[in-house]
Design goal:
220 residues, alpha/beta, Rossmann fold, 7 strands, 16% strand
Length: 220
């Protein structure tokens, strides 16, 4: 079983959008997937309540119970668990990072978001430096903000996903229906972007040295 933690110390960075997007993409890829929602606002859990499909399973939980829930997921044959963390909740984020085979740090291409990436990177280091990557989110369709953001992140020494998620109306429309963009508009730009992010994530998580894979629904 592989574990992906989605962490950002700033609110509104797009943690839930990225979490459910990766989870649904993996489900469509034939994997057994669970999402653990550690945020008291329960955004991912509420999305799961609106969802008609049974998978991925969404579990609302507290950070103190994370280890037990991960063990239960492992026993029940999950291939992948995605942990959606709360902003400004260091204990939960640290526990998630410590359990993760890969940490994803969503970040909007604004100065306010970019300034908080360093704090998140430091938290990941405190967790033992699991593999981590920044995923740009809410990227404007025009202008140079994405390029500038990538330059800033490069100066921080952060690994950055080559694919980013644009500011797309389809993301909000899909969420309102308990869907991902790949389900709501399979051939749309938002779905294409999420598929590219998932491909990067799948490659990165399968290259880690921790036991298990999330390829072809097999676990090791």
């Amino acid at each position: 079983m592989k574990v992906i933690a989605v962490i950002a110390q700033k609110g509104g960075a797009g943690k839930t959008t990225l979490s459910i997007g990766i989870a649904v993409a993996a489900t469509l890829d034939g994997l057994t997937v669970a999402v653990i929602d550690l945020d008291a606002q329960a955004t991912a859990a509420n999305w799961g309540d609106r969802r008609e499909a049974e998978e991925p399973v969404v579990i609302s939980a507290q950070a103190a119970r994370l280890a037990k829930i991960l063990e239960a997921a492992r026993r029940q044959g999950a291939d992948l668990v995605v942990i959606d963390t709360a902003p400004r909740a260091e204990q939960g984020a640290l526990a998630a990072a410590q359990a993760a085979d890969l940490v994803l740090i969503p970040c909007r291409p604004t100065i306010y978001d970019l300034e908080t990436v360093h704090t998140t990177v430091e938290l990941v280091r405190l967790a033992g430096s699991p593999p981590a990557a920044v995923v740009l989110n809410g990227v404007p369709p025009r202008g140079t903000r994405e390029h500038q953001a990538r330059e800033v992140l490069a100066d921080l020494g952060a690994s950055v996903c080559p694919a980013g998620l644009g500011h797309r109306a389809a993301i909000e429309h899909a969420a309102a229906l308990g869907l991902s963009t790949q389900e709501y508009e399979p051939h749309g730009k938002a779905a294409e972007e999420m598929a590219a992010v998932y491909m990067f994530v799948s490659q990165r998580v399968n290259s880690t040295t921790r036991q298990g894979v999330i390829r072809n629904g097999e676990t090791g």
